[in-house]
Design goal:
Elements: E1 24-29, E2 34-41, E3 48-53, E4 57-59, E5 66-68, E6 73-80, E7 93-94, E8 102-111, E9 114-121, E10 127-132, E11 136-143
Antiparallel strand pairs: 1-2, 2-11, 3-6, 4-5, 6-9, 7-8, 8-9, 10-11
């Protein structure tokens, strides 16, 4: 019997391209044994980090105002050398009740070339990150098993 990919704990930082814009976002349940958070780019995926934390409380930037998302744990996904305001027109606070792990995703920073999305999680699930091409995407999966 084949086994699925192993989950690993970031942060992971791939090479940084000279400039990037972030035109699209999707947060979709894969229908498998994980919940998936996706950021889509119009050129190669820039440097990024996905940082775990033991609460769903984050700081908005640049105001430094604290916000608390749904859930009991959190992950902050930060993309460097990105500008989202002029290209992304979707919602900036997303909740999907059918997800087992991701309870809320909120844009917390789009300032001076850094874009951050805070994720409120139901529990401290295993996490993996990877990138895909055609189109360029940053994938953050959370094990739901």
């Amino acid at each position: 019997m084949a086994s699925g990919p192993r989950f690993s704990q970031p942060p992971v930082s791939p090479p940084t391209p000279p400039s990037i814009t972030l035109p699209g976002f999707a947060c979709a349940n894969s229908g498998g044994d994980y919940d998936r958070f996706v950021l889509q780019f119009d050129s190669p995926v820039p440097a990024y980090t996905a940082t775990r934390q033991t609460s769903p409380t984050f700081k908005m930037s640049p105001s430094n105002q604290p916000i608390t998302l749904s859930g009991t744990y959190g992950v902050l996904v930060t993309v460097h050398v990105a500008a989202e305001a002029s290209t992304y027109s979707g919602p900036t606070d997303i909740s999907h009740g059918e997800f087992r792990v991701i309870k809320e995703a909120r844009l917390t920073q789009d300032f001076e070339g850094t874009v951050s999305w805070a994720l409120g999680l139901d529990h401290g699930a295993c996490m993996r990150t990877f990138t895909l091409t055609a189109p360029s995407r940053l994938i953050v999966d959370f094990s739901a098993t």
